[in-house]
Structures
1.
Amino acid sequence: MNAPLLRTEALSKSFTLHLRGGLRLPVLGGVDLSVEAGECVVLSGPSGAGKSTLLRSLYGNYRADTGRILVRHLGRTVDIASADPRTILAVRHHTMAYVSQFLRVVPRVPALDIVAEALLGRGPSPEAAREQAAALLLSLNIPRRLHGIPPATFSGGEQQRVNLARGFITGHPILLLDEPTASLDADNRAVVVRMIQDAKARGTAIVAICHDLDVRDLIADRLFPVAPYREAA
Amino acid sequence: MNDDPILAARGLTLSFGVIPALLNVDVDLWLGEILAIVGESGSGKTTLLNVLSGQLRPQSGIVTYRDPEGAAHDVHAMPPPMLRTLQRSDWGFVHQDPRRSLRMNVSAGGNVGERLMARGARHYGDIRAQALDWLEQVEIDADRIDDLPRTFSGGMLQRLQIARTLVTHPRLVFMDEPTGGLDVSVQARLLDLIRTLVARLGVAVVLVTHDIAVARLLGHRIAVMQRGRVVETGLTDQVLDDPRHPYTQLLVSSVLQA
């Protein structure tokens, strides 16, 4: 059996809303998730159950209350829940990528550069990075005439594909995908499904949120149920 | 990766009369990263910048700068000539008002070349070539090189200040509201320029801003200040997406969505 690339131990996460009189919202409790190389685990559960919170916690975007998030990073194990900011940035650079549901656009930066930028500092020359980015955007049906335009004016589906290109181009060993096909038509869904399957074949460990049952069946090796969390009274 | 911070501050405290401007503030900064310091007016962020850059002496606490050879220097115990040399070469300062660091009666090219000359450059042709190269990098037309800055727009002045600051390849740059007072479209262009140049040059930046969107776009890490204290610090996306301190929650929830 392979050692997992990503594993959580008794992960819990709550939010304390100080502007609402200190209201405390427990979201995750006692989460033990384990994902191996080449495996795609899809988080399942109703809206509001905490799937996105779990995914963001894995990435270190949300800060866990207790428990550990163990990631195999450059031959050692890092606990995201207790790592310092620079270590988390290094894990994000080399090991773990996150594709959010919506592209956070940087003003004035063209689609091609948003994708190519992810490759800089990893070996490819700027020209090679731009060529790879253009090829990936084309395979995602983003035509060349859009490559030089900042995606702020793109449709939701086009923005999502730029976002996916940025997440997939680097070949990170661990991928976190939040609704990767939510705003896509059937053709583009099929392209993304194939990209996910190819990534799995290369040994990428994937955690995804995916409400589309057809897509889910095509990519998931296993479902991981996330239920609305109730703390013991 | 070099694991010693280029700049480290411990226990910085400073009061103006009875008003505490800094209370026991710690800061660490590494090469290649941008630390954004956010907070509202009067939170102490500009005071902190001035103390870190040696322009204002704290009542207690220490600021340590590590030079390229790895030697540590107490910024506030340095002989003044040494501090001035640092500020002219290894360090840079980008003010909100570019007129504070530009010389308005000297040409654009002269403003950029002057900093090279202050560091010992003497060959006129080289200096002019580098000035021209930097004007291009900050997207100022080459044919404006001999124009006086007072003929420039606000956004151009700010880009000229950035060229003047970066021409000596500083290792550490202090920025005080670099996009403050500019039109939004000009601001976006400047932010992208700062982001690209800083990433390419691998410098360390302390960036003071009251604008959360600017901090999110540029900052690797963020420190939130309120009444002279750092109330929350961490990865920028962590602190802004999952704020813990009541003041950070108020700050984040008050941002208008465009």
2.
Amino acid sequence: MTTKRLHPRVRVVWVLRAVLAAAVLTAPVAGGFYFGYLPGWAPLVVGAILLALGVVHALLRYRRWSYEIREDALYLDRGVITQVRTTVPLVRIQHVDSRRGPVERGVGLASCVVYTAGSRGADVRIPGLTPDGASDLREELKRLAIRADGEDAV
Amino acid sequence: MKLAPQSIPYRALQKVAGVVVVLFFVVNDSEWGFPAAAGATGAVLLVAGAYEVAYYRRFEYELTEDTLDIRSGVISRREREIPYRRIQNVDVSRSVIQRAIGVAAVDLETAGGSSTEGSIRFVTPEEATRLQREVQRRKSAGSAADDGDAAGEDRGPVEEELFAISPRELALVGALSFDGRLIGLLAFAGSGSVPVVSGYLPDVSTLALSAVAVAAVGALFLVSWGIGAAVSFSNYYGFRLARAGDELRYERGLFRRYSGSIPTEKVQTLTVSDNPAKRALGYATLSIETAGYAPGQGGEYGSEAAIPIARSGRVYELAREIESFGDPSFRRPPRRIRWRYAFRYALLLAVLVGVAFAVDWYVAADIPWYAPAALLLAVPPAAHLKWKHRGYWLGEDHLVTRNGFWSRSVRIVPYYRIQNVIDSRSVFQRRWSVATVVADTAGTSSLTGSDAAAVDFDVEEAVDLQSELAGRLQEALRDRRSEVGSFEWFEGDGETDGEGDADAEAPDESPDIPDEGVVRSDFSASTRDYSEPAERVDTGGYAVDRFPSDADVAHRPDGEESSTDAVDDDGDGIDGGDDADGGSAEVGGDAAEDAADDSDGSGEAETDESQER
């Protein structure tokens, strides 16, 4: 089975998110400038650095992200700073959602969330899918989970 | 069944006591004086009492065939049915006052949700115990054989004591527990006040200042220790753990008595933990974790159903009795990783020295800020110890991990409890090309991030471990399934949501034709399982279920030979491919494994196909 990648447009969502985060984090610095505690270049520099970091992180994140549906498990590989590889046995899937947030709807994407009874990796989100892809993936995971026939998870 | 009547005044007072007292004093001080105050508090009490009477009248619980039904609610009404099989723990607690008036609170935990699912406040202690026993009896009756009722009844009361805390051990628990919360609180409150305080003490000599500081810290530790000792003494007073059939029961508490039951089949993780003091004395702690919420006192501690302290030999013996995991021999991380720990500790020391220097500079005191550097000598042994106490071991049915050299914990996770496996590598770990593999379970303490983890193993080993764990989970599931299947074959009743029923009965009954001479499918309540994948699932245009899969080809003829009933039992009568599980339950044993393999194979093939689309 092939390793699948996310839709390239997911970068838009992540970059937007990075912009938003940068804006929020820069706000106090801008406030400092407004009240005269800090020189004028401070918010600009901080904002630029945060934005650059956020954008680079978003792009790297896209490069890292991949997922794969194997014979009996869903396998995800992601994470820039801490690389995380998760194996979700299909038997353990409790339920599957496909969902579309406002930004995702804006760029015509959707994501799929897989829930297990575990506590740490209780919900695994696969972003960057086309709306059809997300519902197909949901159906496929559902089908595979049913086929895998888990006994009581807990 | 109703609550205990004395719960009405108790509940009313419990809810409004605080309000009433405040109200009384506030109104009493106002211009209207005592009569108004008495009137107001009386009115509040009356309203509360009326509400509680209504609550009492509405609240009803009932033990039915396979669920516990609770009807409650005065304003918004709720009816809840909790299947016995889904109940994780049943806990009973009684505070001092509750004991005095003879009531007890019963909490039933299931794995769903974050709060207690069934909370019965309050019943008499006898009723509480009866509920506890009855739930267990019905649960085991449900999952065991037909004659399970009688057997359950016989076996129910037989309690075999596993552990009872001795006064010596209780004293040890007290002595060894240290409540860090006070220190944390003071440190938090104090962190902001250092500059303020220093402003008031400009002239005091350094010596006096450090003397006071040392004395204060000493007193703080003593007080913390005292609090910790008192808390754990009252918590674990009279602790005992017993085994009754397939259930563990515990009891503890000095002021507030707790008792609870933990079904052994619901145990997620066992943790044996110790620290240097306990190790030196040869003691350890065992905690038992289920997916229900923490028994006893909310989520703070994770599982409270723990053996607070016992000889480590005894602890392992008990742990093996609950989960027979054998004798672990741990695999350690690569030796080079000790450098990583050494660097880490050195870095920590550098930060410490830096902070000390900053304080010294800020307060303008002449304290020896470089003193922490002396700890540098301790770094190599610490790094070595940390490495030495890490490890994992793959047992026959269990993953055992060990971590931490100060507070060391050994976690025992049965493979079939693994929910997912996570391999993570931080930036720093990547530099050493090592990884951490976490086996996530549904247990509660993993919420606090203390999952079973194999930390800092070689990348290749981590990858192997991850796939090995996933593989062993599949294997364990397969084993359990065939076990359940063959079990049902003979006993005719299943714990798999009745899914086995139809399949298991079929071969048994079909050969002999019923009295009226008509073979009909069994439409009794439990035979139709709606979770069975037999229904057409909308696969969104995938071709998968349109064609019968290998699994079906393998078992269908067999099923038809052995029973005329089997086809009907399937109910749907459609080509299947849907029926991999029914198939395995039906044929049992080796054939089940084949079928499962086949279905896996076919699943793979189909996914391939679907991906090509």
